[in-house]
């Protein structure tokens, strides 16, 4: 097998498994650490490592004031709110349930493109949107979910996070940010880390000393930084340059399945028949959205570290 073929296989494994695993790792870490604190530490470490890698590869870290502002705004939409609040919601929502809701991002992007950019919806897109809404209703209408304390709040917050990710996708597609994806993401992560730290302090979160962390928390955080952030993100960008965007987008319906399995296996989370049916309907909707015919003005999938 050619070297490029091996790299493509490894890159798909990374985006499928590593990104699908971030729900488990976040759930493990948030049991002991405050969610905003956790996200702040994760993105600061990942951003610092990315800067070191970019500098060692000879990339310039120079940035204009406009690019810095845009990077900070993207960091807020993707990471400060989109990821930080999502991690907070995992205190109240199972990982598989959260992953299935996150799979609705293509639906949110399509609706925003329709509302903001006035783009017409194709037949496949309309079918995908309807299936996504039906699947979401089936998922959230389960009695064991609606009666569990805090679940409704967590679910609503996750949906607002998906909206934030989607708005960030439309913004970054046209925003003036550093052209090199490593440098751009590094600035987004560092800016988000600072905002998350400020938010953590304002909300009165407890900052637990690393000396008091348990071994599972250390393992989860290292996995989030190295695998969920750097490895998966680099693989995603490699695939975008070498594989069609439709194939890369298949991670949207593989990640939730990985998350469901890992949550069931490691955290003893129950998977009901209704959840399985909801997953099948929602992921079919995502498939219809991702398989629609794209015109030359369609944007590529945004970079969204999980």
Question: Can you walk me through this structure?
Answer:
The protein is mainly α. The protein has one domain (3-290). The chain is built from 14 helices and no strands. The longest helix is centred in the N-terminal third of the chain and has 28 residues, at 3-30. It is globular, with a radius of gyration of 19 Å.
Mean pLDDT: 86
Number of domains: 1
Number of strands: 0
Binned strand content = under 5%
What form results from the Cα inertia axes? globular
Q: Which assembly state applies to the chains in this document?
A: single chain
Helix count? Answer: 14
Q: What is the terminal separation in angstroms?
A: 31 Å
Q: What proportion of the residues is helical, as a percent range? A: over 70%
Major sheet, described briefly? Answer: none
- Poorly predicted runs: none
SSE order? HHHHHHHHHHHHHH
Structural class, from helix and strand content? Answer: mainly alpha
Gyration radius from CA atoms, angstroms: 19 Å
């Amino acid at each position: 097998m050619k070297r490029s073929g091996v790299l493509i296989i490894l890159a798909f494994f990374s985006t499928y498994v590593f990104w699908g695993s971030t729900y488990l790792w976040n759930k493990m870490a948030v049991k002991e650490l405050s969610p905003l604190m956790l996200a702040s530490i994760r993105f600061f470490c990942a951003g610092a490592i990315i800067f070191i890698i970019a500098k060692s590869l000879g990339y310039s870290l120079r940035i204009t004031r406009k690019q810095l502002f845009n990077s900070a705004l993207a960091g807020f939409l993707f990471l400060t709110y989109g990821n930080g609040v999502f991690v907070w919601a995992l205190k109240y929502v199972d990982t598989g349930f959260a992953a299935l809701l996150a799979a609705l991002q293509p639906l949110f992007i399509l609706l925003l493109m329709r509302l903001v950019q006035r783009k017409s919806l194709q037949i496949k897109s309309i079918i995908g949107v309807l299936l996504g809404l039906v699947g979401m209703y089936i998922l959230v209408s389960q009695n064991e979910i609606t009666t569990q304390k805090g679940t409704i709040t967590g679910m609503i917050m996750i949906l607002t996070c998906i909206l934030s990710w989607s708005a960030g996708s439309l913004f970054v597609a046209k925003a003036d940010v550093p052209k090199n994806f490593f440098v751009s993401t590094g600035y987004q992560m560092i800016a988000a880390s600072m905002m998350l730290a400020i938010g953590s302090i304002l909300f009165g979160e407890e900052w637990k000393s690393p000396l008091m962390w348990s071994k599972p928390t250390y393992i989860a955080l290292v996995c989030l930084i190295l695998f969920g952030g750097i490895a998966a993100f680099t693989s995603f960008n490699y695939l975008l340059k070498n594989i069609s965007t439709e194939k890369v987008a298949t991670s949207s319906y593989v990640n939730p399945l990985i998350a469901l399995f890992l949550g069931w296996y490691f955290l003893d989370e129950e998977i009901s028949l209704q959840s399985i049916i909801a997953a099948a309907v929602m992921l079919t909707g995502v498939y219809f959205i991702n398989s629609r015919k794209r015109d030359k003005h369609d944007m590529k999938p945004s970079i969204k570290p999980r």
